[in-house]
């Protein structure tokens, strides 16, 4: 065989290998490349749960940071999303924005898979869906019960009024451990919020109350019932071994999961490469988000997350195909 025919054979084989590896979506590379100049942040939090900014202030910050597609994914509530939906329907509010921005209605749900707690993002949700709202009402009650139990344990440690104080700080937001941490800081029991977790609130500490969350199957089914896509949030942050990571992704996919959060905040390329390979192995689309909570956390500022690699299948390509 002459050199010309050898070269043609190599090119042909490369074409076949490429399209076999990415048969999940043969147009994934084109879709991703078309979005390279746009900033998508599909994981953020507001004061509706444990974020520092109001929904409106969060959207304004995202707009200032050049974000063109923003998902508000507060913990177990879509209250903040509804605030932004109303704001974006107001021409006066929209006129204040420096550039167009698309709101993706979302939520971050706490759920159990194989006996361990994980977070599942629901994206492109119908926030008026009855199944979704009934489910989230149950989550809110579970958080209230847990918070009361935490308050009682803190009282036994000599810290009284913690439940009432945390609830006052939460206001209408979903009550969670960060509100207790903030209360303990304000009352002078610690000098940093992180110390509250190390001394009382963290897993296995004296005031830790194990969560009783619904199964991953139920959470994913609820997201699908609301017309959304289910994405495993920040899989690298659970501290799993490679074996346990594979087990988790197998279970998540079997339960109907649609994607994984490939990029979370400012992330090492090695982590991205590792998760990208797993996304192909388990036929999961990919998302990207900052997991924004507070402007002081520059490593998780809104819009700081990288764009998806060109070989990732974007989660929004699934949203487009189901709309």
Strand order of the largest sheet: 1-2-3-4-5-6-7
Report the end-to-end length measured between terminal Cα atoms.
51 Å
Number of strands: 7
| Helical content class | 40-55%
CATH class of the largest domain: Alpha Beta
From the coordinates shown, what is the CATH architecture of the largest domain? Alpha-Beta Barrel
Radius of gyration: 21 Å
CATH H level of the largest domain: which superfamily? Answer: Metal-dependent hydrolases
Q: In the residues, how many domains can be counted?
A: 2
* Apparent shape: globular
**CATH domain topology of the largest domain:** TIM Barrel
What's the number of helices? 13
* Unreliable residue stretches: 1-34
Structural class: alpha/beta
Strand content: 5-15%
Name the helix and strand elements from N-terminus to C-terminus, one letter apiece.
HHEHEHHEEHHHHHEHEHEH
Features:
2 domains; globular; 13 helices; alpha/beta; 323 residues; TIM Barrel; disordered N terminus; 7 strands; seven-stranded mixed β-sheet
What does it look like?
- The structure is a single chain.
- 46% of the residues lie in helices and 15% in strands.
- A 7-stranded mixed beta sheet has the order 1-2-3-4-5-6-7, with helices on both faces.
- Helix 7 packs across helix 8 (177-186).
- The termini are far apart.
- It has 323 residues and is of the alpha/beta class.
- The chain has helices spanning 3-21, 28-34, 55-64, 79-88, 91-95, 130-156, 162-170, 177-186, 193-201, 216-225, 242-254, 269-281, 315-322; strands at residues 39-44, 67-72, 102-113, 116-123, 229-232, 259-264, 285-289.
- The radius of gyration is 21 Å and the shape is globular.
- The protein folds into 2 domains: 1-25; 35-138 and 211-322, TIM Barrel.
- The model is unreliable at 1-34 (pLDDT under 50).
């Amino acid at each position: 065989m002459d050199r010309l025919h050898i070269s043609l054979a190599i090119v042909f084989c490369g074409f076949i290998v490429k399209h076999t590896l990415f048969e999940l979506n043969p147009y994934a590379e084109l879709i991703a490349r078309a979005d390279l100049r746009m900033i998508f942040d599909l994981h953020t939090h507001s004061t509706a749960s444990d974020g520092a900014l109001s929904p409106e202030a969060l959207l304004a910050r995202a707009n200032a940071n050049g974000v063109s597609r923003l998902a508000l994914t507060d913990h177990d509530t879509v209250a903040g999303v509804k605030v932004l939906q109303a704001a974006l329907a107001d021409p006066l509010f929209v006129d204040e924005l420096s550039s167009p921005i698309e709101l993706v209605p979302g939520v971050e749900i706490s759920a159990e898979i194989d006996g361990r707690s994980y977070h599942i993002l629901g994206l492109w949700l119908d926030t008026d869906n009855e199944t979704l709202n009934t489910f989230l009402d149950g989550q809110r009650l579970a958080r209230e019960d847990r918070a009361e139990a935490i308050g009682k344990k803190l009282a036994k440690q000599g810290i009284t009024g913690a439940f009432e104080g945390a609830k006052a700080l939460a206001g209408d937001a979903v009550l969670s451990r960060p509100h207790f941490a903030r209360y303990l800081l304000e009352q002078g029991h610690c000098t940093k919020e992180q110390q509250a977790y190390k001394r009382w609130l963290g897993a296995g500490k004296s005031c830790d109350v194990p969560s009783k969350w619904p199964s991953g199957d139920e959470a994913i089914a609820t997201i699908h019932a609301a017309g959304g896509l289910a994405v495993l949030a920040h899989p690298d942050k659970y501290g799993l071994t490679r074996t346990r990571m594979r087990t988790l992704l197998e279970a998540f996919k079997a339960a109907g999961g649609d994607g994984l959060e490939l990029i979370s905040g400012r992330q090492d390329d090695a982590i991205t490469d590792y998760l990208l390979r797993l996304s192909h192995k388990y036929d999961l689309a990919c998302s990207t988000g900052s997991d924004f909570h507070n402007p002081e956390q520059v490593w998780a500022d809104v819009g700081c997350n990288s764009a998806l690699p060109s070989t990732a299948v974007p989660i929004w390509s699934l949203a487009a195909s189901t709309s």
